[in-house]
Design brief:
It is a single chain. With 361 residues, this protein is of the alpha+beta class. It has helices at residues 3-9, 20-23, 42-45, 74-81, 86-89, 104-111, 120-138, 140-144, 236-255, 262-265, 273-292, 301-311, 317-337, 346-359; strands at 12-18, 33-38, 60-63, 68-73, 99-102, 158-162, 174-175, 186-190, 197-202, 210-211, 214-215, 228-234. It has three domains: 1-117 and 344-361, Beta Polymerase, domain 2; 118-139 and 272-338; 154-239, no CATH class. The protein is 41% helix and 16% strand. The strands form three sheets. Strands 3-4-2-1-5 form a five-stranded mixed β-sheet. A five-stranded antiparallel β-sheet has the order 7-6-12-9-8, with no helix packed on it. α7 (120-138) packs antiparallel against α11 (273-292) and α11 runs antiparallel to α12. It starts with a helix and ends with a helix.
Length: 361
């Protein structure tokens, strides 16, 4: 089911403006993200087709462009919420001014939202926070090391081993980019039993080794020893790795919010402040679960100021790491003293799930 069909189906029970707008950390250039929940009708659940991915009911539906929208099917939502998934549990404490759709079924779910709270928040929130720390500098390599517009070509990953007995270093590969050779005068033949290696023969005015960056193998009479020039070696693994990195970079470049990366591109800071803000936000929210039994979604006061100061690059990387480490120590201590249970009551959650399903009949 695509997004347009879902939004006309009447199956959506909840929709809200998520992300920075719900946290209170949005700025003028912030994107507007939407998240929600839909319920697959019972008739579409009681069928063998729901076990066939191609035609069964979807677990999620959404899009990234032009707006970031994602809906979770109720069963998927429950399975994530019972494990205290940070991105999911916040649905249940969404600020009222961000909610656009909330049906009676969803109100019933909100009335029982405490069923999904447990000490598992210690593991899930700190785990997600750790992942944001890694990302805070991981994407930095793309910001400070942009990729060229041209896709990597195989020629850049090829080496020559000339067949030259007078060479000072026989059998030493020479990068193709450092070797002056006109490949219109040569042909390549696959070398038997050796992957990504070719014999190179001299064929004046008749040759062709590369075509749009691809290596072209030709039928060559290999007994022509006098025409044999040497070996062509193709570093295929590095080529494929760099092509993937190039594709990921340009996908990121196309889909990113350009305002987010100005500070790094202008060398004002050496980390991604938004990922660091996510990290601290998760730690503050996880801490509140263990203290007070619920996450923080909409921030205010000193905590909001801290998050916005992080977003505006008012801390060094070392200062932020110190803040994060102290928060993680606090959360670990709370996990040992909190009165919350380590496990949810799965029977009560299952009963609630069934009630909401039957409400749709």
């Amino acid at each position: 089911m695509n997004l347009e069909t879902l939004e006309k189906s009447g199956q959506i029970i909840f929709k809200y403006i998520a992300g920075s707008h719900s946290y209170g950390t949005n700025v003028e250039t912030s994107d507007v993200d939407y998240r929600g929940i839909f319920v697959t009708p019972l008739k579409d659940r009681i069928t063998i087709k729901n076990k066939i991915p191609e035609i069964g009911p979807p677990e999620t539906t959404g899009q990234i462009q032009p707006k970031d929208v994602k809906y979770y099917e109720l069963e998927k939502f429950f399975n994530l919420a019972k494990d205290c998934n940070p991105n999911i549990i916040e649905f249940l404490w969404a600020p009222e001014d961000c909610i656009e759709i909330c049906t009676p079924s969803m109100k019933k779910l909100l009335q029982h939202r405490d069923l999904f709270i447990s000490k598992r928040a210690y593991h899930t929130f700190t785990g997600y926070a750790h992942s944001q720390l890694k990302k805070s500098r991981g994407t930095n390599r793309w910001v400070n090391n942009p990729k060229p517009k041209e896709k990597p070509s195989k020629e850049q990953y090829c080496y020559l081993i000339p067949f030259n007995n007078s060479s000072q270093y026989p059998a030493r590969p020479i990068p193709l980019t450092e070797y002056s050779i006109n490949f219109k005068d040569y042909k390549a033949a696959k070398l038997e039993h050796v992957p990504n290696m070719y014999r190179l023969y001299h064929f004046p005015y008749e040759g062709k080794v590369f075509d749009d960056g691809d290596i072209i193998c030709s039928s060559v009479e290999i007994d022509k020893e006098k025409d044999f020039f040497g070996f062509l070696v193709f570093n295929k693994e590095l080529y494929l790795s760099d092509v993937k990195d190039w594709e990921n970079y340009w996908t990121w470049k196309k889909e990113r919010n350009p305002h987010r990366w100005l500070a790094q591109e202008n060398k004002e800071c050496d980390y991604d402040s938004k990922f660091f803000m996510y990290c601290i936000r998760l730690l503050l929210s996880g801490e509140n679960i263990l203290k007070n039994g619920e996450p923080i979604v909409k921030f205010s006061g000193e905590e909001l100021k801290l998050l916005l100061d992080i977003r505006h690059n008012k801390y060094s990387y070392e200062e932020l790491m110190n803040i994060a480490e102290k928060k993680m120590e606090t959360i670990q201590l709370l996990s040992e003293t909190s009165s919350l249970s380590w496990n949810v009551d799965i029977n009560k959650i299952d009963s609630l799930f069934r009630e909401i399903i039957y409400d749709q009949l």
